[in-house]
Amino acid sequence: MSFLILQLPARTRLSADSADADIGKPSSASTEYDYVLSTDGQHVVRSGRAVANMLPRADMVIGVLAPTDVSWHQLMIPKAPAGRLRAALAGLLEEAVLDEPDNLHFALEPGAKGGEMGWVAVADHTWLTGQIMALEKAKIRVQRVVPAVTPDEPATAYFHEATWGGDAEAAATNDVLLTWSTAAGVATWPMAGSMSRALLPDTALDQVRFFATPPVASPAERWLGRVVTVQTQAEHLTLAARSMWNLLQFDLTPQSKGWYAVTDQ
User: Fold this and answer.
1) Which of 244, 227, 9 is CA-nearest to residue 109?
2) Pairing between strand 144-147 and 60-65?
3) Is 248 strand, coil or helix?
4) Are 44 and 18 in contact (CB under 8 A)?
5) Is residue 73 a contact partner of residue 93, using CB atoms and an 8 Å limit?
6) SS3 annotation, 66-93
7) First vs last C-alpha separation in the chain
8) pLDDT in tens, 216-258
9) Is beta strand 117-124 parallel, antiparallel or unpaired with respect to 71-76?
10) How do residues 64-99 score in pLDDT, each as one tens digit?
């Protein structure tokens, strides 16, 4: 069985150089995707970057969301019928999210059970749907969407570009992000700024795994004062795809009527 693993472009954030109209802008025919082609989901056969129409075909297509495009919330999973579970989650998270719950997409961690503590991943619904539709126009149907980073142990510090595909010159200045993940959650913040280091939890550094994409490895090591493990984009995507998560739940479940309403447009 062949696997095509795609890095979904990070959602645009408001900045001094971006217009409001560009925020959350969906992918277009000219959008390029970092990709990995694998025959077993573990070993890389080919990797590269291409527009959707030029991507290789595979039996299973997995999209990977950038760390900045998923927020994480741990709560008691409500005991609700399947048809009402999404609404129950929205009610519980209404005060915890920055956007209206109706505008958000929710996904439960694998094996989550009602009445037990569990993680809920949250993403922008319109934007995520737009990403799926953009690939569907190129006859690429995404069966799974996974987060790039999940709450887990041991503690992991992952240094990466603020926008996927950023060049090394930009990464060497102020466009490096640090994504910190432990069993207690995931957080991402800019490496630049006097407060950045203070945000690092008080954890013994010898117990932390430090990774960095190739363009940001040098600035990350200078900032951190220690060596980091360089992780290529292909390695990062392959590792993320091994996750048991699938964010395509509720109305975006591949077998749901909502899914076909989206992909048949």
Assistant:
1) 244
2) parallel
3) coil
4) no
5) yes
6) CHHHCEEEEEECCCCCHHHHHHHHHHHH
7) 28
8) 999 999 998 899 999 999 999 999 999 999 999 999 998 755 5
9) antiparallel
10) 999 999 999 999 999 999 899 999 999 999 888 878
